[in-house]
Write a structure and sequence with these properties.
Length: 361
């Protein structure tokens, strides 16, 4: 739900600063967008939109309160974030997927590691004079990342940057590993003290609505099993001619390349030491992906499971058309203990499902 048709939202943001009540025009705009896709806003979405409008009205005063939106998959968090981003009446704004930003943050801090303030130098490069920063899909599971996040959030708030963050997790649910959770409490306290925390609730999974598939390339793809010869012929997959790509100065095998279409093996993408920044580079080079050889994710290492979650997140956010070829039905392929798999199941569930007797839809 991230496809948007540009509208005169700059004028809307300017009017919101003086509107009474301030939320009316923004709420009406979101209602129109929802109606165009055949659904109505949930009460949780309306509550969030009212808070968004209030913060838009405060931006010129320099006193907005950052927002942290959380909720189950498919409740429209990214859709709300995109609408807010369009409505912000300032030029110095960025909308980033958290995977993308954090990968580049690590990369920049490594490059500036000899400086006294590597974090500050990296933020200068990545954000410049940014006043409004929107993070989609915020989560943390690694204690090393958690320690950096404490510094990052303090630095962002010290710069006076307004944050809008979406997550599947309430702040208390971040870094759930009991071995490390207590060390993350400073960030949780900082979120609560510096941000308004709002749940985006509702009973509807908006990703499941047919109208949303029309706006995304990702959902035009397929989940195919068991990947027999007839299915492959119908999909018109290129003949396998393996080639070694260089991605961020590391080798990565591709099974086939056909223009902007690439065929990659699950093992090469997820069982080996790939990173989010690698997926982002490849997503910039190839519009259509075929991922071969997904079996039972629960039998893979936790590192491979997390890489697959990250990979699907990147491809969904970059809106690349994806075909996954598995050995079993999707419901039997995505077992595992990672909480983030709920998001992966939801996203891959939007693909056309094709089994042994099914036709390519």
């Amino acid at each position: 739900m991230s496809a948007w048709i540009p509208a005169p939202l700059r004028q809307l943001g300017q009017r919101l600063r003086t509107a009474a009540p301030q939320h009316c025009e923004l709420l009406a705009w979101f209602e129109d967008k929802a109606a165009s896709r055949g659904y109505q806003l949930s009460e949780g979405q309306r509550r969030v939109i009212r808070s968004m409008a209030a913060q838009l009205a405060q931006l010129e005063e320099g006193q907005p309160r950052s927002l942290y939106l959380y909720g189950s998959v498919g409740r429209g968090k990214s859709w709300l974030l995109d609408g807010f981003f369009q409505a912000v009446p300032v030029e110095a704004k960025q909308r980033l997927h958290f995977h993308d930003f954090f990968a580049r943050l690590h990369q920049g801090m490594h490059q500036h590691r000899l400086l006294d303030d590597a974090l500050g130098a990296t933020l200068d490069e990545l954000l410049g004079g940014c006043r409004v920063l929107c993070f989609d899909e915020f989560h943390v599971h690694d204690i090393g990342d958690a320690m950096l996040l404490t510094r990052l959030f303090n630095a962002l708030f010290a710069r006076g940057i307004f944050l809008l963050v979406t997550s599947n997790y309430a702040p208390e649910g971040l870094l759930p590993n009991p071995l490390y959770h207590e060390r993350f409490l400073p960030v949780i306290r900082l979120i609560h003290s510096s941000m308004e925390v709002l749940e985006v609730g509702g009973d509807t999974d908006f990703r499941s609505l047919p109208a949303n598939r029309e706006h995304q390339r990702f959902t035009q793809g397929h989940y195919v099993w068991p990947g027999d010869a007839a299915q492959r012929q119908t999909l018109k997959l290129p003949d396998q001619q393996p080639v070694v790509l260089e991605v961020n100065k590391r080798p990565l095998r591709a099974l086939a390349i056909d223009g902007r279409r690439v065929v990659l093996a699950f093992d090469d993408l997820c069982e080996k030491a790939t990173a989010v920044i690698d997926y982002l580079v490849l997503a910039g080079q190839y519009d259509e992906w075929v991922i071969e050889g997904l079996d039972d994710l629960a039998e893979c290492s936790l590192a491979a499971q997390q890489r697959f979650v990250n990979l699907v997140d990147v491809l969904y956010d970059q809106d690349r058309q994806v075909t996954v070829i598995g050995t079993r039905p999707l419901a039997q392929s995505l077992g595992g203990p990672l909480a983030d798999l709920m998001r992966t199941r939801s996203r891959l569930g939007q693909l056309h499902q094709v089994g042994p007797e099914g036709a390519i839809a």
